[in-house]
Amino acid sequence: MQKKDISLIYPNSISYDIDNGQGVPNISEEVLSSLELNYAIDLKGSRLCDFFTMDKDVIEYRQGIFADMLENEALTELLTKLTPIVNDISEIRRLSTESTNTDSYLYSITEIELYISAMELLNSGLEPIKDKLKSDGFKRLAERVFELTNSEYYKDLNVRLKELTSRVREVKSVTIGVNLDARLRPDSAGVLSVNNEYFKSGQLLQKILRLDFRNDEYTCIASLVPFKKNQAENQQIALTNAFNSALNDVFKSSMRSWKRVVGEYILENADFLIKLCPEIEFLVKATELINTLKTTNNALCYPEICPKEDKTFEVKGMYNPIVAIKINEKMVTNDLSFDQDGMFYVLSGPNRGGKSVITCATGLIFALTQLGLPVPATSAKLSVVDGIFTHFPSSAEDTIDKGRLGEECARLDEIFEQVSEYSLILLDESLSSTGAYEASYIASEVLSGISLIKCRGIFSTHLHELSMMIDDINKKCQEAGGERIDTLVAGIQNGARSFIIERKKPDGKSYARDIADKYGISLEKILEKNKKNR
Length: 534
What we know:
The protein has 534 residues and is α/β, with parallel strands linked by helices.
């Protein structure tokens, strides 16, 4: 990105280009699908994964942009109206490269009209709210728009455009002259005039009877050919090319001067609008997500960005925004932190107790932060990650060749080929395709590797036995320089799921006992019910 360009998602000080991948974390479309974020921010013209960043300056720059959009609804409306106009400019440019001279001339005029429409829209939309804008990005955009629309060249462009468009749009017909030889055969032909009226066709007999052609020059007495009727395609093309060639000669001087105007001014000044198009779509869609979350009355905050090397994660009142949107209710919130007592967690608890929800929520906190958005929490401090890797249950189609366990292990292997100590790994019910003994053994190996890699993350699992192995895993790995692994528990209160995630050791029997009591299948209740049937 050149510094002279206007960007709403990158500050001036950032010189790298998004296409080079510099500063972009490893967050794939597959990961976004597993977190359901690419459905919540559904982009058509670009990929959401291309907008992630690890740069603190970029994140804070975007936070200012989103704050402006949330405080000024008119900005979202303005950018939404601007998008189709800029898309049309891009399409016109594409078509003009493939067109004939006459078409290219008309495309150039259309591009100028679209450019002026875009600038007038921006000028009228930004003028009333210019004093309310706080972000550098929108301030710079407003300054650029006001500078261009108030320039003498822009004003002159409007005048010239009106002259040229009126000239072109007045063209309704051309008069063609055909010289005949002595035997009345066509000898030569050419355009005699360009007219601002359509010629009229009438009954041939009436025209011949009048025999007053000189005073009725716009009435056709006989068609040259049944134009575009019963003609082969090559005949239509030949005739059209003949007319275009004649018109090219008529407009040749105008086209040369007009092309020069487009080349010197529009190509330069409309480019920044075209480059903004993917950014605008991202900003509008992301703002829609934030506004939807605001209607659920759940908290949102802008996270404080800490150095990557600190691997900080201290979040209070967090919740899963995707679930919040789906149920449209206020969510049960949780606090979570990664620290020296636990950089990675094994999360256990009852089925449908919120394990998967909090696991995804953790990934979404990082993802939304590194897009520059506010996060679903009351407060947040965190260090960015260089990648997010998920290992969630896959569809049955993926297991045909290797079998379920083989497929799970293969995907885990792919993760470990890419992960670093600054990455986030989220495992949800991994290794559930085999027995408890085999699953616990493989899982302990996975956790040992994660401890020594020193990355952050959560392993949500039904394997209560795994939690009992954490002390042994920590003892072995910490001696080798690994990070400590801790345990989380999805709580149950009075037999009901509380969706509260607590940092403590699990008690598998208590879960089973509470669930059995809730559904009336504890030994005591079984005997009590059976006694009534005697």
